[in-house]
Specification:
It is a single chain. This protein is an alpha+beta fold and 622 residues long. It is built from nine helices and 33 strands. Strands 8, 9, 10, 11, 12, 13, 14 and 19 form an eight-stranded mixed sheet that branches. It is elongated. The structure holds 4-(aminomethyl)benzoic acid. 4-(aminomethyl)benzoic acid is lined by residues 558-561, 563-564, 583, 585-586, 589, 596.
């Protein structure tokens, strides 16, 4: 680790330090948004401001071009009946579901052994839901219909719950876009709802303002209302009723500034980034710089309903919704329980509880959590000597007598390093030193491993340092089933580029050179900030998707010769450590105008998992 103590106070290389973000004046750009074809008969054009102080400031334009939805596992967790492949949630096969659970009779009349199986089948063949070819009608199937509307895409909602003879209306009190979208999907409108209310005249013998009704509570990603929880007031209460206008090509289109959802639906722009899945495909909540109202902002740029904070289930991929929560109970459950106790009885099987239960059965990965609980470091410190167990993922690669590079343990027999550190032809010369602190005077914990296999990225480019990543498989003891690396804990492999952001503080460690090329014998570490827009330092040598810059504004902490292949680790809101970067290159060492460049590991999740096996590194979305 090179430690340069020159304090370059007047150097203003980091815009985030020198300029407040967004202060730079920009002249507003007006963009003509053409309404979708079906609405062109009115020949309306929409003027939308793409700069200035409008609500659009909340949206990240660059992110929007990626067209993220509820199926983008770079932004959200997949459902437990899905897994994440190449950034997309894909359907698991029904046999991969847990064997026990609640038997369900779906809207098409088919019986499924479990809810998970139903969702898996539906995920594989979404249209089969409307085939109505099943026979499980015995107890009275669930059904939903629209009453008193002018067209069949709108009206007051009437439901028939499973096991109940009577039909019921839904109360307006608990009705929102979240449930309205699900109801419309259920009715066969793939873009969900346009509005949560409308004016629908009821026959005189039924009063609109006073009717007994049931409440419904959905998460928003259900495809049928039967998956939502229905409750009923115990004491007869007469309330206003819920109605809906489903989104169709002929629907009366919203006016004002509009946001176009990935599924093609248009919603008022003020409803984007409000924590509510108005689009139905969540695309209005996934590219946010901040969130409206009380909704919760996940560091990954996602807005979630405020009730999801501290509800005992991690909703942000960054884990920040469950960080620092008091252990005592979960607000969402508490509120719901209180409501239930006060006035209601639950009328349906709780599919949300079933979803959580299925999720709890998924395999859990043990990585990124050290044995010793670290004390929180409050300030940027210079490079410091490491202690035993501080960096249990840190490995050293030796070529004969020379310590050539660092490496990062990621589990099993696998070590991640830089491609420029190793050559397949030299495999017999390498030794992996595990549990090492000082290589001049090795500590007693040191264990030496030989190398079984080296996999260098097939697109590694030795002149540009693109794809500077390699995997080393260490030799397993013949008598052992698995590799045992003493005193080692794997660092987690990040599956999404949104887990950490520019300005996050991370730690680089290694046995690399000091300033003036001075040799270092003991493992040293230092805190650096992730740096965005690094092309401004390295122009056409920097590849944003594959590389990550990190450093300090005065250059006092930096990686240097010999640190290569070693870890840049970042710790999330719940103290789980990820290998965010692999020390790769940089112009000199400790120069603030030339920050250290690291291989961005998140970009290589699929490459790594293809070689080491998904189960070894897949922490979520398995
Ligand atoms: C190297 O030669 C090297 N300052 C590694 C990192 C950096 C520079 C050089 C970044 O291995």
């Amino acid at each position: 680790m090179k430690l340069v103590n020159i304090v370059l106070l007047f150097l203003c290389f980091y815009s985030s330090v020198c300029k407040a973000p967004g202060i730079e004046p920009r002249s507003p750009v007006w963009q003509v948004k053409t309404l979708p074809p079906s609405h062109r008969h009115t020949t309306r054009f929409q003027l939308t401001s793409t700069s200035g102080k409008s609500q659009e400031d909340l949206l990240d334009r660059n992110c929007l071009t990626k067209k993220y939805t509820h199926l983008s596992c770079n932004k959200v967790f997949c459902q437990p009946w899905q897994k994440c492949i190449d950034g997309t949630c894909v359907c698991k096969l029904p046999y991969q579901c847990p064997k026990n659970g609640t038997t369900v009779c779906s809207t098409n009349g088919r019986t499924y052994q479990t809810y998970c199986q139903q969702k898996s089948f539906e995920c594989l063949r979404p249209q089969a839901k409307f085939l109505n070819n099943g026979t499980c009608t015995a107890e009275g199937q669930f059904s939903v219909s629209l009453k008193y509307g002018k067209t069949d895409s709108e009206g007051i909602l009437e439901v028939k719950l499973m096991g109940q003879n009577e039909t019921a209306f839904i109360c307006k009190k608990s009705w929102s876009m979240t449930q309205a979208n699900v109801a419309c999907l259920d009715l066969g409108f793939p873009q969900g709802a346009l509005d949560t209310q409308g004016s629908f005249p009821m026959p005189e013998n039924i009063s609109v303002n006073g009717h007994e009704c049931v409440h419904v509570h959905c998460r928003g990603l259900e495809t049928s209302l039967t998956e939502c929880t229905f409750t009923k007031t115990k004491i007869k209460k007469y309330q206003e009723l819920a109605s809906v206008v489903c989104y169709t090509q002929n629907a009366d289109y919203p006016t004002g500034n509009l946001f176009q959802c990935v599924n093609g639906k248009y919603i008022p722009q003020k409803r984007a980034c409000n924590g509510i899945n108005d689009c139905g495909d969540q695309s209005d909540e996934l590219c946010c710089k901040a969130c409206r109202g009380e909704s919760f902002f996940c560091k990954s740029g996602v807005c979630i309903p405020k009730q999801y904070k501290c509800n005992g289930e991690v909703d942000c991929i960054t884990g920040d919704d469950e960080a620092g929560c008091k252990e005592t109970g979960h607000p969402e459950i508490r509120v719901f329980a209180a409501e239930v106790q006060e006035e209601t009885e639950i009328l349906t099987a709780d599919m949300d509880a079933e979803r959580k239960w299925i999720k709890s059965l998924l395999p859990k990965l043990s990585c990124g959590v050290k044995e010793n609980i670290p004390t929180r470091r409050k300030r940027v410190v210079g490079g410091k000597p490491a202690h035993m167990k501080d960096f249990p993922w840190q490995m050293a690669i030796k070529d004969g007598e020379k310590l050539i590079c660092g490496g990062i343990y990621i589990g099993g027999c696998w070590i991640l390093t830089a491609a420029h550190c190793v050559r397949v032809s030299k495999i017999h010369r390498y030794q992996i030193w595990v549990g090492l602190l000082n290589w001049f005077r090795p500590n007693s914990e040191l264990k030496i491993q030989l190398v079984n296999r080296i996999i260098i990225h097939e697109n590694y480019n030795g002149s540009t340092y693109q794809n500077d990543i390699a995997l080393i498989e260490v030799k397993k003891h013949p008598s052992k089933k698995e590799c045992v690396l003493p005193y080692s804990v794997p660092a987690c492999v990040p599956w999404s580029p949104y887990l950490f952001q520019p300005n996050d503080r991370c730690i680089v460690s290694g046995w690399g050179r000091e300033k003036d090329n001075e040799k270092v014998y003991s493992l040293r570490w230092g805190e650096v900030n992730l740096i965005g827009n690094c092309s401004k330092f390295y122009a056409d040598r920097y590849y944003e998707k594959e590389m990550q810059c990190a450093g300090t504004s005065d250059g006092s902490i930096d990686a240097c010769k010999g640190d290569s292949g070693g870890p840049l680790v970042c710790t999330d809101a719940n103290n789980v450590t990820y290998v965010w970067g692999i020390v790769s290159w940089g112009e000199n060492c400790g120069k603030p105008e030339f920050p250290g460049v690291y291989t961005k590991v998140a970009n290589y999740f699929d490459w790594i998992s293809n070689h080491v096996g998904r189960s070894l590194i897949s922490q979520h979305n398995v």
